[in-house]
Specification:
This protein is of the alpha+beta class. The chain folds into 2 domains: about 35-285, DD-peptidase/beta-lactamase superfamily (Beta-lactamase, 3-Layer(aba) Sandwich), CATH 3.40.710; about 290-395, D-Ala-D-Ala carboxypeptidase, C-terminal domain (Peptidoglycan synthesis regulatory factor (PBP3), Domain 2). It is built from 12 helices and 20 strands. The strands form 6 sheets. It has a 7-stranded mixed sheet. It has a 5-stranded antiparallel sheet with strand order 3-2-12-11-10, sandwiched between helices. It is globular, with a radius of gyration of 26 Å.
Length: about 400
């Protein structure tokens, strides 16, 4: 039978702060696609058409960097290794570039800076050929890796996000997931995203992610712009031990079109950064993280069948936290569910049930619950009495 622990709801509600809270300011943006994510838990705090694939422009370079970071972490490549610049890479000069020259040999570390700071389309080709042998093979690696990472709304046709050939697509949700992966799985390389400027070929360029200067704690990741996508940004910030990820794509500024060229880009980039900083500030103010359980904490008891104990304590394997507005926190519901009674013997760490968390306007999620202790099987005589009791009373829980 399916049992649900309603007592857990009352337990959680006892954590609600006594002080009242004002309703959270409505989150909104002119971006066509957007998502705010808690980097620790992966919880989506707010989203706007976040699952629809759209051209990601240079934000797709995060996948190019992911493959490079993976090769670095697996020791297949070193930061001091050099990749040669081919004619194809040299010709990839549309839009942003790192001003590479045919025959140059560029260190992997400098190529990372070329991609992050200068958004070099040319340097992405150098990386693709250096790792994949050919650009086409590297693109195949990008698509295979995207599947491994669960990026289901992503498809790559080149390593730099240009619209030739067409067909490069990523959803805002996939960009947020990829950003979280880069933050969590490559801490030894993530710091490059926070560097403000870089000099290559005697040309000094500043990081196009202006949020680094506009918002305290911002330390990554990547901007993007082509005509098909509008202006976009994937940004992460850390404040007081909390990290949030914001993705915006499809920001359009028709009133700036008359300016054209670099003037249009300058004003648009300022607006993009201001919008990202505004939303990050709102998110850090209005969304708060509530820690619920740590490994070893007793969440609930599950009934045991034919065990040396009537019940087994349930716990979590990883810390459980939820990030919500205070108003949503007061309406949060948490239940424990399991198929029970659970047949003995039960091993410590064995999955027994689930912790189910829901709140208004937030995606529900569940966390596995495991046995906090071993429960042996009842002896032969005890099992006979349990069976007789169940036959007579119809009750199968406990001894």
């Amino acid at each position: 039978m399916r049992r649900t622990g309603l007592a857990a709801v009352l337990f959680f509600l006892s954590f609600v702060a006594a002080a009242g809270s004002a309703a959270a300011e409505a989150v909104d943006t002119s971006a066509e696609h957007a998502v705010i994510m808690d980097a620790d838990t992966g919880q989506v705090l707010w989203a706007k058409d976040a699952d629809t694939p759209a051209p990601p422009a240079s934000m797709s370079k995060l996948m190019t960097l992911e493959l490079l970071f993976q090769h670095l972490k697996d020791h297949r490549v070193k930061l001091t290794d050099t990749f040669p610049v081919s004619e194809r890479a040299w010709r990839e000069r549309a839009g942003s570039e790192c001003f590479v020259n045919i025959g140059d040999k560029i260190s992997v570390e400098n190529l990372i800076r070329c991609v992050i700071i200068m958004s070099g389309n040319d340097s992405c080709i150098v990386i693709a050929e250096g790792i994949g042998g050919t650009v086409e093979n590297f693109v195949a690696m990008m698509n295979a890796r995207a599947k491994q990472l669960g990026l289901r709304q992503s498809h790559f046709v080149n390593p730099n996000g240009l619209d030739q050939p067409p067909g490069q697509l990523m959803s805002a949700m996939d960009l947020a997931k990829l950003a979280r992966h880069l933050v969590r799985d490559y801490p030894e390389y993530y710091h490059y995203f926070g560097e403000r400027d870089f000099v290559w070929s005697n040309i000094h360029q500043h990081n196009r992610n202006l949020v680094l200067e506009k918002f305290p704690g911002a330390d990554g990741l990547k901007t993007g712009h082509i005509e098909a996508s509008g202006y976009g940004i994937t940004v992460s910030a850390l404040q007081n031990g909390r990290r949030l990820i914001l993705v915006l794509n499809g920001l359009r500024y028709p009133d700036l079109e008359k300016r054209g060229g670099k003037a249009q880009d300058w004003f648009a980039e300022q607006r993009r950064a201001d919008e990202a900083a505004r939303l990050l500030g709102l998110a850090f103010r209005e969304f708060r993280q509530y820690k619920l359980f740590s490994p070893g904490d007793k969440v609930a008891d599950a009934q045991v069948w034919q065990g040396s104990s009537d019940t087994v304590a349930l716990t979590v394997q990883k810390p459980v936290a939820v990030t919500l507005t205070p108003d949503a926190r007061t309406a949060m519901k948490v239940t424990v569910s399991y198929d029970g009674p659970v047949q003995a013997p039960i091993a410590k760490g064995q999955r027994v049930g689930a912790l189910n968390v829901s709140a208004p306007n937030y995606p529900a999620f569940n966390v596995p619950l495991v046995a906090a202790e071993d429960v042996g099987r009842e002896g032969f005589i005890g099992r006979i009495f349990v069976g007789l009791r169940a036959a007579i009373t119809g009750h199968s829980g406990g001894r």
